[in-house]
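[stage:ingest] chain + small molecule (flavin mononucleotide)
[stage:ingest] validated
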Amino acid sequence: MTDFITLETRALEQDEGYKLVIGAVVPRPVAWITTVDETGRVNAAPFSSYNYVCHSPPMLAVNIGDRAGVLKDTARNILATGEFVVNVATEAMLEPMHESAADYPPEVSEPEALGIELLPGRFVRVPRIAGSPVQMECRLDRSIPLGRAGSTLYIGEVVAFHVASELYVDGRIDSVRMRPVARLGGPFYAGLGTIWKRAMLQQAPVGVGGVRPKA
Ligand SMILES: Cc1cc2nc3c(=O)[nH]c(=O)nc-3n(C[C@H](O)[C@H](O)[C@H](O)COP(=O)(O)O)c2cc1C
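[stage:predict] done
[stage:export] tokens:
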């Protein structure tokens, strides 16, 4: 029998709960988010408290914590402009993605400082990261403050997907070939490990090309 340690969150310090949740919710995809400030300066930073939360329209959610009561540049820019781009972080871009998490002051553009090549946004004013094979242009749908420590959930509607043509197969993204990176707890990242294939047993959501339930 496994011996369990039980930790009631009420009795934990903030950072203890944080360490547990980032070790338990793994692997997390990494949203490498680009934004612009009011002057058009481009910001880039990675966020792994992230997932898709609605399929029609496709919507993404990312949780951004503040820095001692001050909004991070990404959060401030999303609130100011209502726009952001989520660039999928891949093995090929691990180093610049990781380095863009350093605490750069707002007046420093990470893509400029790190030499990250950009492409213009087509539907939003925010540029995309050229080296990322899948970029999602988003408009802010709503922001929801959560908890007691300055976390806010930003929910964006994807208004356009840009998919590298070699990864776009029959209307799907070849996510194995994409070689995404995931965040684990602490200083660790992971690539895709073993891939298992199983027949789909569940129905795809109605209206997205799945099997419609019988009337
Ligand atoms: C892989 C990775 C994932 C991260 N995930 C988050 C996250 O989900 N939420 C968050 O607030 N910060 C997260 N961070 C920290 C931010 O990237 C960091 O605070 C960054 O400096 C914010 O930049 P900005 O001020 O330019 O927005 C993460 C860092 C790394 C390296």
